[in-house]
Amino acid sequence: MGHRKTHAPKHGSLAYLPRHRSKKPTARIRYWPEIKSESPKLLGFSAYKAGMTYVFTIEDRKRSPHFGKEVARAVTILETPPILVCGIRTYTKTPYGLQNITEAWMKDPPAILDRLLVLPDTFNTEAMLEKLQQNLEQTNVVRVITATQPSQTSLSKKKPEACEIQLGGGTIPQQFEYAKQLLGKTVTPEEVFKDGQYIDIGGITVGKGFQGPVKRWGVTCLQHKGRKTKRGIATLGPWNPHHLMYSIPRAGQMGYHQRIEFNKRILKIGKNGKEVTVKGGYIRYGEVNGPYVLLAGSIPGTEKRQIRLRVPARPPREIPEAAPQVTYISLESPQGK
Question: Fewer CB within 10 Å, N or C, the chain?
């Protein structure tokens, strides 16, 4: 019996078409879930991906065959310097989607924001907040405009990233009052998330440039004695329909796509990054200096890239009440030094 050729016409989900390059290296969050809580809170955060290592934890999922045992897990370390709340923006719902009503900015924004936006010398914050107060009746969504602080990390960049984070819980007036308290202040990850919680991740995948159909779609290479191409596809489709169907695997952009990953579990939120910095620092990143989040599993994107964190849109039904017990964090050098 000779070797039977593997039947692999195409791999890869068609749900992500078109596979085009992301406009920005920062993910867009198009959906914010509604949460049930009496007091308002932020529904997201921003972080920077530092790298990966592994830990030993006590398995606390009751349905797992390893329940109560020590298991090894791959983990991702995110550096989470406090984010600065520099503005408030409100929206009203229209038949055509959300419409911005107005916004308010902090009185004296830091000079680092000039690298990102063209700002006036000073804002009339009281007048802006008064206008927001007057339009509260028609306000359906309250969001804060936040800026990251990369200068507090080991990154060489100085330019911050700005993004909107929605508020959830309580009533709209309560959310507005809470946003007013945050304006001009910084927020830490402990104020938004807690140990053991599930969260959603938004990121831009590692870019691989223009690739052929074998690498991009996983089609089988044609036989070496075949006519014309070897790393292509045998047919571009049937006579009818006459046009080229979207499902035909073709060459094109691979990577640098936006992806949202659901239900990544926070194993630990820490304040001193030295606890999780491996020997010699993380490759292409360096040392983690400040607050960090230890996340189970891998996430999309390369080192140094901004990662958006969000409360879970569809959390698991069974969530352990207590945070998982981390017994060991590997700090061995990933380069074997």
Answer: N
Give the closest residue to 82 by CA, choosing from 102, 54, 110.
110
Strand partners, 78: 49, 293
Q: Which residues pair with 111 in a beta bridge?
A: none
- Give the number of other Cβ atoms within 10 Å of residue 70's Cβ: 12
Q: Which strand (E) or helix (H) includes residue 83?
A: strand 83-94
Tokens describing residue 134: 């007057």
Confidence band, pLDDT 50/70/90 cuts, at residue 5: low
User: Cα dist. 201→178, 247, 269 in Å?
Assistant: 25, 28, 16
Phi, psi for residue 170 in degrees, rounded to 5: 65, -165
Closest CA to 295 of 203, 163, 165: 203
Cα radius of gyration (the chain): 24
CB-based contacts of 27, cutoff 8 Å, min separation 6: 202, 203, 204, 258, 259, 260, 306, 307, 308
Q: CA 100, 106, 108, 109 torsion: positive or negative?
A: negative
Q: How far apart, in whole angstroms, are the C-alpha atoms of residue 262 and residue 180?
A: 31
The whole-angstrom separation of Cα 281 and Cα 288 is 8
Contact by Cβ (8 Å): 50, 80? no
Exposure class string for 87-109: b at 16+ Cβ within 10 A, else e: bbbbbeeeeeeeeebebbbbeeb
pTM for this prediction = 0.92
* Residue whose pair of structure tokens reads 């969050």 in the numeric block: 29
Q: For residues 311 and 326, what is the distance between their CA atoms, to the nearest angstrom?
A: 22
Query: How does pLDDT run across 285-326, given as a tens digit for each residue?
Result: 999 999 999 999 999 999 999 999 999 999 999 888 889 999
What interhelical angle do 172-182 and 125-134 show, nearest 10?
Answer: 170
Q: In whole angstroms, what is the distance from residue 265 CA to residue 296 CA?
A: 6
Ramachandran quadrant class, 252 (left: phi over 0; alpha: psi -120 to 50; beta: rest): left
